[in-house]
Amino acid sequence: MYHYIRDDDIHDNSTVHNLSIPPSLFDTHMKEIGKLRDESAISLIHGDDFIQSWKDKCFTSKKIWILTTDDSWSDTYTNLAPIARKYRIPFFFGAIENRVDTPGFITKSQLIELSHDPLFTLSSHSMTHNDHSKMDKKREAYEICTSKEIFEKIS
């Protein structure tokens, strides 16, 4: 899972700093992952293939890697997606519904574009990104199901 694909910023707090990776290093990661895939050392799985394999209870490999990006930061569109495309690496894009179209986060039009690319799978990461362990079941169902329904309409 990748959170931020961007260069260090002196204004970042320690959590953001620790979850950040520069685009040049991410490029190196994707190049190596692509090489492992091309050598059949691993299998990378797309969203539709994962869902079908889950339903069928039949995965075609024991060495499947699923790559995700978390929280829908804008750099997932500007930095991660182009590098993933370069190496043909599929990704699940976890988006937080109430952060779409807010400063620093991905826009709805960017999500639509990503959802039309067969490499990428849009996935819900809740409505608000609040701590689910502190929610009652009704609130948790709202967080998960409502965002899922909204994002399914986008893609």
How many E strands? 7
Using the alpha-carbon principal axes, give the shape: globular
For the biggest β-sheet, the strand order reads 5-6-7
Q: What does the average pLDDT come to?
A: 89
**Count of all domains:** 1
Secondary-structure-derived class: alpha/beta
As for the CATH topology, it is: TIM Barrel
The residue fraction in helices comes out at 40-55%
First and last CA, distance: 21 Å
Query: Which H/E pattern describes the elements?
Result: EHEHEHEEHEHEH
CATH architecture: Alpha-Beta Barrel
At the first level of CATH, the class is Alpha Beta
Q: Biggest β-sheet, characterized? A: 3 strands, parallel
Q: Any idea what the CATH superfamily is called?
A: Glycoside hydrolase/deacetylase
Low-confidence stretches: none
Separate helix tally: 6
The amount of beta strand, in percent, is 5-15%
Radius of gyration: 16 Å
Folded structure, characterized:
- By secondary structure, the protein is of the alpha/beta class.
- The mean pLDDT is 89.
- It is globular.
- It contains six helices and seven strands; from the N terminus they run E-H-E-H-E-H-E-E-H-E-H-E-H.
- Helix 2 (23-38) runs parallel beside helix 4 (74-87).
- It has a single domain, classed as Alpha-Beta Barrel (TIM Barrel), CATH 3.20.20.
- Strands 5-6-7 form a three-stranded parallel sheet.
